[in-house]
Amino acid sequence: MFAQNEQAFKLHESGNTNCDNYRAIMDILLIELNKFPEAKGYVLVYEGDLEQRLYDKNAKYKGVKHVPSEIGTDTELIGYFKNHLSFRNFPSANIVFVEAGFREKLSIELWFVPHGANPPKSEPTLKKIKQRKQKHTEFGFCGEM
Fold first, then answer.
1. Does the pTM exceed 0.85?
2. Is the alpha carbon torsion for 125, 112, 98, 80 positive or negative?
3. 11-113 placed in CATH 3.30.1330
C-alpha cells in the first residue's frame, strides 16, 4: 500500500483522439485503480480546439488544422467516460470527473491519487475560448459503445 505522504501523480495526458483511444486511455486508469482499491482516480477534461487531420483526394496525409470545439465537449466526453465505466463494471465512486476549464487545445489528464493524498487542481490556461454551437447527434459523443 501507499504511504500516507504519497502525492497524486499524472498517469497520462492526451489531446483529442478517436473513440477507441478514449476507451484505452480510461482503461489505463482502471488498471491502476484495480491494484489499489483505496486510491481515487481523477479525470480532468479541458475544453479547447480540436485537431482535425487533413487528407488530399488520394488519402495522402496533408497535415493538421485546428477547429473550435463545440460547446459542452467536456461534458459529453465525461459522459462517454462514465459509460465506459459501466461497460467495464467499474464503481464510479472511485473516479472524480472534473470539467477543468479551457486550454488552447482539448486536453485530458488522468491522475492517480493515493489514499490520503491531495487531489490535483485544475490548471486552465485560458479564461474563455471560441466555440461552435453544439450539434446533437442521435447517439451522443462517439456514438454507441
1. no
2. positive
3. yes
